[in-house]
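JOB MANIFEST
job_type = single_chain_structure
chain_count = 1
residues = 183
[input]
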Amino acid sequence: MKPFLKQGITIFLFSGLFFATFMALMDYFQGYEFGAWKFFFSALFFGGIQAGWRLYYMYQNFKKFNIEVPNQIDFKKIQKEEITTNTRPEELRSLIDKNYVNLNIAKFQFEENRVILRTKGDGVSPSETITIDILPLEDEKYTYTIESKSNYKLPIHDYGKNYVQVKYLIRMLQKPESKLKVA
């Protein structure tokens, strides 16, 4: 099963069953009898709306940053990738300043061979901490290890935001001469 569809089914089940259970409890406290048909209808209807909305949001986020909709990746809580490029660490700071809004950065700090970015939550997924480790190589090249993870301990879903952040930073390091445009 593709991870994108798997995530949709997970959202459908969790949100639908949560809503149906909540409504059944509200009915119980108001003195109404439990109706199985009402429970299943609430679970299917609300779960379907939530899954459709969340998958649409994820798809639009990929489309916004011109990132191919992933078919076989896992929407892990921690996304980590590595790139070797000739973009200097000094250029990285100006790249982050240019793309501050696109990355949704709340604050950032530069250390010796590390950059730490903290993003804002957006109502759909929680805020992240993005760590960029810099390893100098020979011939004016650098290896950047980019890791994005949620600031919360137990997020149920990533909604592809960590994946988008890492891919966007890799594209940014590959094309440092221009400000990346968001479609």
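[summary]
The chain has a mean pLDDT of 79.
The first strand starts at residue 78 and ends at 85.
exit_status = 0
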